[in-house]
Amino acid sequence: MKLDSDEIKRASRRLEGSIVRTEVQAIVTAQNKSATLKLESLQHSGSFKARGALNAMLCSNVGPDGVLAASGGNHGAAVAWAAQTLGHVANIFVPEIISPSKLEKLEQYEAVVHVVGREYQDALTAARTFKQQHACVELHAYDQTEVVVGAGTLAMEIDEQVPEATTILVSCGGGGLAAGLATWWGSEKRLVVVETEGTQAWAKAREAEEPVDVEVTGVAADSLGARRIGDIGWEALTRCKAESLVVTDEQVIEAQNDLINQHDVVAEPAAAASFAGYKLLEVSTDENCVIVICGANSA
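^ thats the sequence. predicted structure below, dont judge the formating
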C-alpha cells in the first residue's frame, strides 16, 4: 500500500459507517483567541487510534491467533475494539505506566493484556517475541502505512467541517496521526506538531536532521512515549515542513483543566498538549486554527 491521498480516500470509504464522524467545536480562549476543536476524543475506544486500527485490520489476512499490538494504551484499546468488532482475538502488550482507565478499557474490549516493562519500547520488544511463536498479525501503533492512512481520514473530515482552516495543531508521539495529516495536506496547511518536554521525538529529530532516540518522561508519556519518531512520520513531516512546538508538563495540565472547565471538553494529557501549544502559538489575523483533541482516556 502506498502512502498517499488516494489511499486515504480508499480508507475513508472502507471505514464509512464503522467509525464516528467526530464533532467540531468553535471556542474562544481566555486570551480572546478563536479556534476550532476537532473532538476525536469522542471516537470509538476514546481516541483517533480507532481509524488506523480498524483500517489496518480490514486490510489484513488475520490468522488463527488474531491480532497483536504494543501500545501505551490508546492504540491497544483501538486494536482491541476493532478486534472485538470483527471477531478476532487481540493480544495487547502495554508498559507499566499505562493509566488505570486505559487498562480498564482493554479489559472491557476483552483483550488479552500483557503488562511488560517501563515504557512503550519494552512492550514492543515483548510483543515481537510473542509474534515469533504465534500465527497473528501485528498492527504497529504508528509506523505502518495502513495505520497512518486510516488516521489520515481525520484530515478529510476537517476539510469538510472546517473548510476555512489554515493551521492545524496536533500532538505527536511516534508520528502516525501527524503523518496522516501531512500526507493529506502536504504543504497546503500550516501543520504544528506539539510535544511535551518529556516526549520530544519529532523536535529532537528535527534538530539532528534524522530520527534519534529520546528519553521518555512526564505526564503524557503513556500516550506520546515513543522513543523515536517513526520512519513514516519522519518522512511525511519533513516533506511538508511541519513545525515543532514543545510544551511543559505544567502547561499541559493547565490546558487540560481549561478544556474541561471553560469548554466542557475531556482530554487526556497527550490530547491537551495540542491545546497548550495553541495558547503559545503566534498566529496572524487571517489564520484559522483547528486543534486536534486526539483522545480522552485519562488516568
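The CA atoms of residues 65 and 261 lie 44 Å apart.
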